[in-house]
Amino acid sequence: MIEFLVMALFLAQPASSQAAAPAVPGAPAVAQATPAAKPGAPAAKPGAPDAGTPAAPPPAPGTSLAPTGLRNPVDLAADHVTGDRNQAVLTGNVVVKHQTMDIRCDKMTGYYNATRQVTRVVCAGNVRAVDGDRQARGERADYDVPSGVLVVTGSPEARQGNTYLTGTKVRLVLGSERLEVENARILVDSPSTTAAPGTRKKAPAPKPPGTKP
């Protein structure tokens, strides 16, 4: 009975007091003090979340689950979406909007990073892209979201104002006025002229000899 009382008193002390308390002859050795459970309290399950971190409360009725305060959102829409933690596949009337960039295609694969941010968008089939006064179209497109660089391939075409270009690769940069085309062929408009096409101004006929000017 004496040994039991000594052990109970020892377990009730804080950890700092246990280190300074002298050893009691005949008392069992205890490596670390464990707080005693309250009567009737359920035992803690292994791997259970910390009781100090409360779970998120359920949303109020009628409250949207859409995130707020996004600094650089990418808006994706399609007829059908499937995905997992690493990527999402969108098919049918796909629309991607990022700041001033608007991309449309038949199928798109979006890739996420560890924090569920969209880092890359790969489009296929009837790709059409618009950013300001620049337009591009082709069969495939790769959009790097952090850098804002869009590369269109697959018989691509591009237009900026009245300038029309074709080539093997079209490159647009988000919010920039630059338009880059590899192996390009350019069709541009020219200023109008007063002369009708195919006509030349005739030289005046020579005057007969002896006539005054």
UniProtKB/TrEMBL annotation:
Keywords: Signal
Sequence segments annotated as region (Disordered): 35-71, 188-213
Protein name: Lipopolysaccharide export system protein LptA
InterPro entries, per database record: OstA-like_N
Pfam family, one: LptD_N
Signal sequence interval, chain numbering: 1-19
Gene3D superfamilies in the record: Lipopolysaccharide (LPS) transport protein A like domain
Lineage, top ranks: Bacteria, Pseudomonadati, Myxococcota, Myxococcia, Myxococcales
Biased composition (Low complexity): 35-54
Domain Organic solvent tolerance-like N-terminal: 78-172
